[in-house]
Design brief:
alpha+beta; 55% helix
Length: 776
């Protein structure tokens, strides 16, 4: 039979090669053995091909004839010379196996496995598949079994074809053809399952399929909306991953190699390829686990749909979920926005008073100047928030304009808002709902939230092999969840994440990659949809009771009601009156006693003073000291003004000292000793709890980091009206070496230069870092 190989390729040499190079290449190829479970017959056939190539090329005369044939001969010429052999060759090597002008050699039938193995080593995966599958077909086995005999081992051919599928899939993966890569890997897996051979190789293929799955999901969900089947397949794969991981912030093993932080970033990225309805369905179902992250993302979807589709009922449902999440987090700003969209302006103002969000509140106050309340600024902030932070996360709303004027002008919105309870009743609703006991598992949801607060500056690289080098980007403040939830997303974060095309969501993907650390999850609320339906159908039971009590009190404010009914009610009330009279007499007696004691003390004091004045002689007259009220009797020197301390004035040197202190503390917290407690010396909330949780997670995972930093302060901003707060921008170069269980993880290590904004607050004589954000 003829195979598309030449002797130079078999030895891995160019045509122009010396005898010494030829001999060295022969020795190297003989020593190098296949790394897989090939039989001795396959290895022997491979070695025979190498020996045949060396024998021809090492003989000057044979090499000269071979070179002439190499340049002059073509596949068509050979097939025209021998039609009978061509028929046999087309059985094992179809004409599509290699191009007409490809050099080829003839080999004995019993060297077929060795030839396939050689093609596999040379990376000719398509040729291996064409010829290997042709051999494995039923007809080919029947026709060639007698010629090849026992030396052709079927398992060797199966192994070579499976490895070709594996390597071809990885090659397509590197090229960004994720669905094609999955198809190749699945073909190899099915072949091994059908033959019942090589479970180790099958396991390698399955491992690659698991790691490829997040890329496939993003590629499928990025398809045009008209491609329903592909997008549905992407959602099915996403559901499978979530089940294996036990939720968005779960710790189950799905085989993807993504940590909780990386998976949050993955979820955050795929959101822009899902519509608002798809996200609502997905995250509402996930919030039932419970999952705080899913609950927060469901809130985003409900608010987005409620505003865009003029469905305030969804916004009210989102507020119910926010009230529950707000038990342990500052979500009053989002609650204020929901109250505003529900027409509850008084409640919106109350929520703003409780919020601790510095930047948004400053923006709202600035745009509410001249107004008796903060509603003008809140309206403007809400529009900007919807337009810039909410809508871009939804496929169908990315280009939508947010207008509160159009929203409140909608007749459907007006009808719903008019049917809502008054603000007083609504406030009672929220209080009753927030005070109601949480469903089981809420503590676990809070733990999940605390765990995932590592979304901030955390954005160590955890790549998806064998994908391309990971890229970095920053996320918006409200993103996190993968991410991110909100407050942590405002802290610093640099991410290595899946790099997808953003300009055209309907175009095929070009490449994907994953990032280091991020943050933001939340507390969970379960059965939110059920609770909301209950509120829509009937008022809360506790509210009905409150009304009954108030009506009873109004109807009979001064009338006594007996605790039980009896024919002897008069006797009961009479005995009660006697007890009241006795009690009143006792009180009067005590009051009289106290008054008598006070009068006696006053008389005794007056008598003692009078006796002292009579018995004491008058003092001798002398010069009196002239004392005036407007001047001190003795000149008092003015205290010298104390120069402002270094902590009070934030200059270039002080700012550098603060940032250097933070970076050294960070190195200690994530180093071998995991000095987490030191973070409180330089960080304030919310950054403190975020970084403490991240450091504890690294300690629990036996992960350490070694940092090298260099910084440059770019700018410092302070306000005379807010002397306790400051903001500075610095360029930070961070070199991180990540060790997992004592071994260096080069993929997770990185060297980055970032421009970071630090929000500082002065507590006592120290400047602490309140929040961080990566600008670029």
């Amino acid at each position: 039979m003829r195979i598309p190989l030449d002797y130079y390729r078999i030895l891995g040499l160019p045509i122009q090669t010396s005898a010494e190079q030829l001999q060295q290449a022969y020795r190297d190829r003989t020593v190098q053995l296949p790394q897989r479970e090939y039989s001795a017959a396959a290895i022997e056939a491979r070695n025979q091909l190498i020996a045949a190539a060396y024998a021809v090329l090492s003989d000057p005369e044979q090499r000269q004839r071979y070179d002439a044939s190499y340049f002059a001969s073509t596949y068509e010429v050979e097939t025209n010379n021998d039609s009978e052999s061509t028929a046999i060759e087309h059985t094992l090597l179809p004409s599509s196996a290699f191009e007409p002008n490809t050099p080829s050699i003839e080999i004995a039938d019993d060297l077929f496995v060795g030839a396939l193995l050689m093609l596999q080593e040379l990376g000719e995966y398509e040729l291996v598949l064409d010829n290997g599958l042709s051999f494995l077909s039923t007809n080919s086995i029947t026709q060639k079994q007698e010629q090849i005999g026992d030396r052709i081992v079927r398992s060797d051919v199966v192994l070579t074809v499976a490895l070709a599928y594996l390597e071809l899939g990885r090659e397509q993966w590197q090229q960004g053809q994720y669905e094609n890569a999955a198809t190749s890997l699945e073909f190899g897996q099915k072949l091994l399952a059908r033959e019942g051979l090589f479970p180790v190789v099958a396991g390698d293929i399955q491992a690659d399929l698991d790691k490829l799955r997040p890329y496939r999901i993003l590629e499928l969900l990025a398809q045009p909306e008209a491609n329903i089947a592909a997008r549905q397949q992407g959602l099915i794969l996403l559901q499978a991953i979530l089940e294996e991981r036990k939720g968005i912030d779960g710790t189950g093993n799905d085989g993807s190699g993504l940590s909780v932080e990386d998976f949050l970033r993955f979820i955050q990225q795929l959101r822009s390829y899902l519509s608002a309805a798809e996200q609502q369905s997905l995250f509402e179902a996930e919030s039932q686990r419970p999952s705080a992250v899913a609950t927060y993302l469901a809130v985003y979807a409900l608010i987005a749909r409620g505003f865009a589709e003029r469905l305030p009922v969804l916004i009210r449902q989102a507020k119910v979920m926010l009230v529950r999440l707000g038990k342990r987090q500052d979500l009053y700003l989002e609650q204020a926005i929901c109250s505003l969209l529900l027409g509850q302006t008084i409640q919106a103002s109350r929520d703003l008073e409780l919020s601790q969000e510095y930047e948004p509140l400053a923006f709202i106050r600035e745009n509410s100047q001249g107004s008796p309340d903060l509603l003008p600024g809140l309206c403007l902030y809400s529009e900007n928030w919807l337009q810039k932070e909410v809508f871009p996360n939804f496929r169908d709303l990315a280009d939508r304009q947010a207008s509160l004027k159009e929203y409140f002008a909608d007749e459907q919105v007006q009808a719903y808002l008019e049917a809502l309870p008054t603000e007083l009743e609504a406030a009672e609703d929220w209080k009753v709902d927030s005070d109601s006991p949480r469903v089981g598992g809420d503590a676990e949801a809070n733990d999940a939230y605390e765990t995932n607060q590592q979304l901030a500056a955390s954005r160590s690289q955890n790549s998806l092999p064998p994908s391309q080098k990971l890229k970095t980007r920053t996320t918006t403040a409200k993103e996190r969840a993968i991410a991110t939830p909100r407050r942590e997303a405002r802290a610093t974060r640099h991410e290595k994440e899946f790099d997808l095309p953003q300009k055209d969501r309907s175009s095929p993907l070009n490449g994907i990659a994953v990032l280091p650390e991020t943050e933001r999850p939340e507390r969970a609320s379960t059965n939110s949809s059920v609770d909301w339906v209950g509120k829509e159908q009937s008022p809360p039971r506790s509210r009905r009771r409150a009304k009954n009590r108030s009506s009873r009190k109004a109807n009979g404010r001064d009338r006594k009601e007996p605790l039980f009914h009896s024919q002897d009610n008069d006797v009961v009330w009479a005995s009660s009156d006697r007890r009241v009279v006795k009690k009143n007499r006792l009180i009067l007696l005590l009051a009289s006693s106290v008054l008598g004691i006070v009068v006696l003390w006053f008389l005794a004091s007056f008598a003692a003073g009078l006796f002292k004045r009579i018995s004491t002689p008058a003092p001798v007259a002398s010069a009196q000291l002239m004392v005036e009220l407007n001047q001190p009797a003795v000149p008092i020197p003015k205290p010298a003004k104390k120069p402002p301390s270094a902590a009070q004035t934030l200059n270039q040197a002080t700012a550098t000292q603060v940032i250097q202190s933070w970076l050294s503390t960070k190195s200690a917290a994530f180093g071998q000793n995991h000095a987490v407690d030191q973070l409180g010396q330089i960080l304030a909330e919310p950054a403190l709890s975020q970084w403490q949780q991240r450091a504890r997670n690294d300690k629990a995972s036996n992960r350490t980091r070694q940092y090298k930093h260099s910084i440059k302060i770019n700018s410092i901003q302070t306000k005379a009206s807010l002397p306790e707060q400051a903001q500075l921008v610095a360029t930070v170069n961070e070199i991180a070496q990540v060790y997992e269980k004592g071994r260096l993880n080069r993929q997770a290590s990185y060297n980055e230069t970032l421009q970071v904004r630090y929000d500082l607050v002065r507590q006592g004589d120290r400047w602490l870092i309140l929040a961080m954000k990566v600008l670029k």
